[in-house]
Amino acid sequence: MSNNNIINNSFDFSDLLITNIDNDLTFNQLLLNSADINIQNASGWCVLFEAVTSNLNEKIEEFIKRGANIDIRDHKGRNALFWAVYSNNTQAAKILLSLGINKTVKTIENLHILHYAVYKNNLELLELLVENGEDINKKDDLNSSPLIYAVLYNKIHLIDYLLECGADKMQEDYLGNTALSLAYDLKIKTMINKLKG
Question: What total of structural domains would you count in the chain?
């Protein structure tokens, strides 16, 4: 079957583009024959997300230059920056941030990007996000800060970094918990000492 026959049939272009992301000849042929580089499949997946999660970092900038919407979101509100954190792809996050991606990533589950970086236990990504202007004391819908997440997930090295950056250890969530009170509740002496200091 020639590539022209693929184009003339009613295949899902999003799946064809994603499947051929590494096949430059077929990928380019699809685009030349009117495939939309921003087309998304039923769950909102697109070639930009595929490049990010597959560590095809050299493709990210190329796709954006070819018209890929850097701020495209899936059906749960997640953009390529979310998927970079999800896949622990710091290089992709650097590329996306340098190209001006919208840093407001709040999923349907109301998880902000800093909170998610803490959950993923990725100090390098957390540092990158803070260096790019993310608020170290950002609150989620329960008023929890990234520091509270670090305490809840027992991420000592992230607590150190967040405190060095000026995280508010007395910020309360909606239940009146602070990072310090949670450390006491969890009986984690190392955290208690860090947060008291």
Answer: 2
